[in-house]
Amino acid sequence: MTMQSSYIPALKYNWLTKFYDFLIQRFLKEQTWKTFVIQSFSNKKPERILDIGTGTATLAIMMKRSYPNAKIAGLDGDENILAIARSKIQQQGINIELTHGMSYQLPFPDNYFDVVTSSLMIHHLMDADKINTFKEVLRVLKPGGEFCIADWGKPKSSLSRLLFYWVQFLDGFKTTTSNVKGLLPGFLKECGYDDVNELKKFGTIGGSICIYKGKKIN
């Protein structure tokens, strides 16, 4: 599967990319659950952190503020959204390394990162690419490292399920079905992660955003 044929922009259409930050901040309680992700790290002094599907780099910037001594890297397959990210990082006057690439073909060495994060990106991938992404993240994590995911999960109510249909309309039913069925923790376990847990579920007008974490033991 090629990057050109498989890539789905953050809001499905490229012309919507410029509105991404406003919509996520305004409607999806972004600061609340991204702050929770950062606070959930077991390692409070990480040396290297990778944010896959970094988008406009909001989470990467928040992590740099929380861990100023850590080397933060962000990866995304969309050059348009990376341009926004670069502008935000420059305005902040901070150092975050951005790379154009795909999550299932990570251009990083084995056993390199203490933490890998992902927020609202995994649901853009077909299940085979979800699995390959999880395997690639496991490869680049150091032993003892952890993978923290914030993404759409199994709805906590019938209303949440109804609300999630608009996300599926935008991002596609094929890529989001495993999310809404709550299958991501099982995928992580199949790929070799330990201590896989759903840490918290946040209700939004788009459905339930779940925080998952898995660790690399060896």
List the helices and strands and how they pair.
Elements: H1 3-6, H2 20-27, H3 30-39, E1 48-52, H4 58-66, E2 71-76, H5 79-92, E3 96-100, E4 113-119, H6 127-140, E5 141-152, H7 158-171, H8 173-180, H9 184-190, E6 194-204, E7 207-215
Parallel strand pairs: 1-2, 1-4, 2-3, 4-5
Antiparallel strand pairs: 5-7, 6-7
Structure, explained:
The chain has 218 residues and is α/β, with parallel strands linked by helices. It has a single domain (3-215), classed as Rossmann fold, CATH 3.40.50.150. It is built from nine helices and seven strands.
Count all strands and give the number: 7
Terminal-residue CA separation: 30 Å
**Helical proportion?**
40-55%
Indicate how many domains the architecture comprises: 1
Radius of gyration: 16 Å
Subunit organisation of the chains: single chain
Strand content: 25-35%
- Spatial arrangement of strands, main beta sheet: 3-2-1-4-5-7-6
- Which fold does the CATH topology refer to? Rossmann fold
Named at the architecture level, the CATH assignment is 3-Layer(aba) Sandwich
Identify low-pLDDT runs: 1-5
> What overall geometry do the principal axes of the alpha carbons give?
globular
